[in-house]
Fold this sequence. Notes:
Shape: globular
Strand order of the largest sheet: 3-2-1-4-5-6
Number of domains: 2
Distance between the termini: 73 Å
Number of strands: 9
CATH architecture of the largest domain: 3-Layer(aba) Sandwich
Helix content: 25-40%
Largest sheet: 6 strands, mixed
CATH superfamily of the largest domain: Vaccinia Virus protein VP39
CATH topology of the largest domain: Rossmann fold
Radius of gyration: 25 Å
Structural class: alpha/beta
Amino acid sequence: MDSKYRLSRKGSKMKRLMFVTIIVLLFCLSLVDAADQGVSILKEIGISRGICVLLGDTKCELAVKLARESELLIYVQLSRAQDVETARRTVDEAGLYGTRIFVEKGSLKRLHLTGNIADALVAVGKAASISEKEALRVLRPGGKALLGSKVLIKPFPEGADDWSHPYHGPDNNPQSRDRIIVAPYLTKFLAEPRYAPLPQVAVASAGRVFKAFGHVAFKKREEPFLNKLLRSMVTTVRFSGSVT
């Protein structure tokens, strides 16, 4: 009886050990899958900085991975209150809540963002059924949306004009042909650098603003941009203000 009892106990320990091993392996595989998915998404959207909308990531595991693998600012919107709480807890434990990742509650019928603000949008799971119209609304022109296996790119609006030279074009005629930007003129965003040396020159083309800074700084906060010419050129997406 003693030998049978010992064999029974040994068998139970082996079963428990195997069960724990399987659980650990499954957990590790899920981490690897999340890592691979994060890298794959970054390659697909083609950016590593800017504003990314992430939908359907109820546990925010993908959001955390994307934030750690890039410099993206990530906005997550979830429809269920319990998913919002779980997601916020996950992000807070990762030390990213309120700085790199923001989680809000709301229906996917209307995202809580203004138009032309996001550099990318990623929808996974059931959230991939979000309407294309709403996804494109929040994307800036040239931005990319991944709705499951479907890829959308927002086109540039007709009537938008570039300002590719200091005085508009190579003819030095400071007259824009833009038919979209009309009064009243409102501030859409504030972007870095807020303080920079003089003189300055800015040009805009293909949805980006390029700024070059000069040699005169009045405050210490302006000195990092002194006399750097091409290396101090800052490229900013002119719709969202994201420095990319």
